[in-house]
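quick one: 3-phosphoglyceric acid bound model?
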Amino acid sequence: MANIRSILALGPVMPVIVIDDAADAVPLAQALLEGGISTIEVTLRTQAALSAMEAIAKSCPDMVIGAGTVLTPTDAANARDAGAVFAVSPGATPSLIDGCANAGIDLLPGATSASEAMVLLEQGFDTLKFFPAVPAGGAPFLKSLASPLPQITFCPTGGITQQTAPDFLSLDNVSCVGGSWIASRGDIANKDFATITARASAAAEL
Ligand code: 3PG
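yep, here:
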């Protein structure tokens, strides 16, 4: 099974992807790789998401594929079958945690409070998504958790930009941030892969 903490350490930014046409998946992954990004979260928010992951897994072996918006055990099994090596969820439920374990796919579960983080830590999760990062308190909130919960590393996502990412990345308990700004749904649909590579390059240097 993949190790979430080591995957998140591959780079400072993980693009969160909403893709409408699986035909755009490989050019998208190539554009990100060219910009220096080798981890991707493809959200299960569109019909095309699973096919997109399959295409990337087949053609871009250097890309580490995560499935995002994994909400159920069925989502977890589908993501694994499509080639995802980790699953990301906005929160966490007992059935999702069991489902990911049964599917043999590592989970990056979401938390937005000390209590949620502590419940997940008790279950062995020391690497968590902090979502929605900005509305839930942003970098000051995460900074406040570092002292009482130093064992936990967070990947904040939700409302983060190229400009605000450094506020999060400077924290001891953040190893990478996630966001859609690198490859927006519109840029992908417009096949604006040059822009995506440029944004990936800038993000990879954060
Ligand atoms: C996520 O799923 O993590 C968020 O939708 C990404 O948030 P953003 O679109 O504000 O970057």
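Strands lie at 13-17, 39-43, 64-68, 86-88, 106-108, 110-111, 127-130, 153-156, 177-179.
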